[in-house]
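Can't paste images in this forum, so I'm doing it all in text. The chain is below; anyone willing to post the predicted structure tokens underneath?
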Amino acid sequence: MQSIDTITDFLTAAGHAAEQQQGSKGARFRIYDLSRRVQALGLADFAAIERNERPFPAPRQQHAWLGIVFWSEQQQNDPYIWFVKLPLDERSLFQHAARQHFLSIIVDALGTDLNSAPSAEQEKRLQDNPYVFQPDEARRAAFHALVRRDLGLPPSIYYEDAQSFFSQEDSPVEWESLGVQGIHDVIARLSHPDQPGQQLLHKRLAQDFLNWPGPIQQTLTEAMEHRQLPAALQNNLLAALEGMFEDALSDSHFALLRATSAQALSNRYQQLVLRLLKTYPNDTDLLLTIGARAWPALIDYGNLQLYLEQLATTSETIFIQAFRDLVMLPELRPLLLNILRKDDLSPVLQDAIQALIAHTRSGQ
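Text version of the structure:
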């Protein structure tokens, strides 16, 4: 039996075991990142992360939050899923001891046989695993929508009503009857060639986004922030946000900022974040939203320094927690460490950084 040192080794060994048992293609698997955005992780990329050849790309709260999907040839329509939360070190690499502990629990409970449903006893042992977590409703819905799309499976039973509501101006479906999963299914398939009414769907999402009732707007926001939106839809939503800078900061600003945040690396989005910081300075909710949802826009050094200056005006606790979370992001880490070494910062930011250093040295 091959050595099992990583999650990739375990899932690969399970596939080989299935091939030997059944004489057919063995267990297959996919890895999804549920940390900040719900998105697939390439298997080669994940294997490299496990070998500590590269950091985990988008940690949240010093952890990697993973959805592990695997299935045998006979189980493709009903894959088995684990939600796993693994701690990372200060460089965003897997903590070896924690990952090996997780693997030892899995191997002890299942061996390498993933081709049959776990027994009640095995299931209990798996659920007692301290690394298992349950995603919130929005992440779970985004995850299931993406997995079913990626595996070529039909969307949920809630999809048809949601698709009808968003793509037909005279749809008979009432918004109160829409399911959260159905809305996520529609957004996950925005660029899918088989989704009917694409042109009208994109038009209605752009024109009516802010006119729909709050619960629908909220669910759309939670679905869109995980997806790369079609270019025309993205541009229309950004234009709507750019046209609101004369207004007081509102839920609509936050909804549009989050809905378009998967494009936060673009120059247009980075400029928009800069305008938001200048127009609505020192707003704690805005700062936390940018840090949690639009962090790639902070790769712009000017944006990052202004962001930290304003974050330092909130509270010592918020600054320290936000900084520690952001410094785990590989793109931001060198920029943040460079700022720590600067001696021309404003007094308020210098004080916040000194408090951060003091907390770090005291182990808090």
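The mean pLDDT is 90. Residues 7-127 form one domain.
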